[in-house]
Amino acid sequence: MKLIYLVSFVSICSLLQSMEKHHAKDVPNESKTLLQKTITQLKEEEFILTGRLLYQNKDHIKALNSFKQAKESENPQIRAEAYYWIGVMYYEGKGTEENSEKSLELFLKASKTRCNEELLGTIHYALGVLYKHRGENDKARSSFQRSEWQGRHEIKALSWWQLGLLEKSDIKKALKFFHLAAQAGCAPAQHILGGCYYAGECVQKDYEQALVWLEKAAEGGCADAQNSLGVLCFNGENIEQDLKKAAIWFGKAAEQGHTKAYYSLGTCYYHGLGVQKDYTKALSLFERAAMKGLSEAQNQLGECYYNGDVIEKDDKQAASWFKKAAEQGLAFAHTNLGLRYYNGEGVEKDYQQAVEWFEKAARRGERHAQFFLGICYCYGKGVEKDIKQAVVWFIKAAEQGHVDAQNYLGVRYCNGEGVDKNWARGVEWFEKAAAQGHVIAQTNLGLRYYNGEGVAKDDKKAVEWFEKAAEQGHADAQNYLGLRYCNGEGIKKDDAMAVVWFKKSGEQGHASAQCNLGLCYYAGEGVKKDYKQAIIWFEKAAEQEYANAQNKLGLCYYYGEAVEKDYKKAEKWFDKAVKKGHAAAKTNLGILLDMEVKL
């Protein structure tokens, strides 16, 4: 377009120069005047074309000056377009300060200046957008209606889309406009229409139609549609899950600066979903979204700083980002910020502040916050201790599948804390948590079956649950499983397997397992008899104040087994065990003291 005008301008200038050179006196003055006017008009049109080019290249100050020169034209078409462009720049605050009043004045002046219908339609569309921005919907509707029948094809489509947006109170009417706009190629309207078919709003739910329109919108460059398609592909919602395609759509939307797409694409890079894992890219995308105010990204950035897996651990930065997200009302961030105050990480420890943040999230149904609020009431942290209130919050969290809350609730029912004692109810909650792989709940459930508490005694089922927890490395369960092998309860007696599980548990510092392992070495059961090894394991357990190990260690010193006989050391260990209430140690200590008196 610009090139054609330039050629015309140069050609006419050349013609005038040629006429002057050859003294073309026979050329009528009317023709010369016409040529001069044409040159002037082309110069004025050049101001418009130059202004557009400068605007596209983001040289806004020069663009504004060029449009201001064009508005001095005698040609009303050029003046109208110049008024329009200057109005746009005042509206957007480009090349000048944002000024909607000045923008309105210029758009109105442009609309009253004689010009072709195509430009007039564009001007009325701009007026509609401005009126809508100002909340003057009736005027906006009127302007869009004028641009609908005056504007070029793209403006008509955009006007139908805007008219649909204005008909919030009449969804059917709005849908009619969205259909018109979508069929005319308006990508934002296609996105809305796809959403309507997907959700079944005023149309019969039709996932195929939804995808057709969403794909048209996405391919038409609508960032919202690109992000929406990414979400559908990522989650596999009513379409086949395709993480690679999801990452592609998120990438296209992110290239256009779509905030949520930054976050979603960052999540893909963070976990290596559909793309190769890249923490550097993930962090960069999270930061972009967080800086644009997306609370989910701010919370994620806080977790990155807290975990130190993407960036150097920084509890203060973590707390700062959690706070930004929490202040926007993100429930997960409320919980995370509450935990920082509870533990004193990145902020000064403050249980009352922790409770305040937990409560904000808990009342919005965030299950982790409900559990932690229950913990605060359970142990009197930041609030007065109230087991009944703790149980209220544990129930809310447990009913949403929070495994720790389910296990805690099971314990409360079994112990009758905050609720009437009810073994059967306790077992129900242990079963829910155990089914989700909660090792403590699995161990607790194994004990209930072993003791016949809340369920019929069943040694085999007890072993099954102990095995599940033991295989996940739970020291208590490993010790209980070792005892079942040792005693042949619920499983075939196997001393060697008992030693295996006692050792696994003992190496984790479990005092009872250490003592049991010592007994195996002492008696040579499941392992070659070895008093020295027995002493080693008895000492480990005894140093943890485990009374049975203290008594056994006292006996070793009393009899001089694997150690030099030493009555004073025997007395020391017997005495420690007695203070723990160990009956056999009391008898042993009495015998020792009696013997010392006789000696």
What is the fold's blueprint, element by element?
Layout: H1 2-21, H2 29-56, H3 60-70, H4 76-92, H5 100-111, H6 117-133, H7 137-150, H8 153-166, H9 171-183, H10 187-199, H11 207-219, H12 223-235, H13 243-255, H14 259-271, H15 279-291, H16 295-307, H17 315-327, H18 331-343, H19 351-362, H20 367-379, H21 387-399, H22 403-415, H23 423-435, H24 439-451, H25 459-471, H26 475-487, H27 495-506, H28 511-523, H29 531-542, H30 547-559, H31 567-579, H32 583-598
Helix pairs in contact: 1-2, 2-3, 2-4, 3-4, 4-5, 4-6, 5-6, 6-7, 6-8, 7-8, 8-9, 9-10, 10-11, 11-12, 12-13, 13-14, 14-15, 15-16, 16-17, 17-18, 18-19, 19-20, 20-21, 21-22, 22-23, 23-24, 24-25, 25-26, 26-27, 27-28, 28-29, 29-30, 30-31, 30-32, 31-32
Structure summary:
The chain is 74% helix and 0% strand. With 599 residues, it is an all-alpha fold.
Nearest-angstrom radius of gyration? 40 Å
Which sheet architecture does the biggest sheet show?
none
Mean pLDDT over the residues: 91
Strand content: under 5%
Give the tally of β-strands: 0
For the terminal residues, how far apart are their CA atoms? Answer: 121 Å
- What's the helix count? 32
Describe the structure.
This protein is mainly alpha-helical. Helix content is 74%, strand content 0%. It contains 32 helices and no strands. It has helices at residues 2-21, 29-56, 60-70, 76-92, 100-111, 117-133, 137-150, 153-166, 171-183, 187-199, 207-219, 223-235, 243-255, 259-271, 279-291, 295-307, 315-327, 331-343, 351-362, 367-379, 387-399, 403-415, 423-435, 439-451, 459-471, 475-487, 495-506, 511-523, 531-542, 547-559, 567-579, 583-598. Helix 2 packs parallel to helix 4. The longest helix is centred in the N-terminal third of the chain and has 28 residues, at 29-56. Residues 1-25 and 34-39 have low confidence and may be disordered.
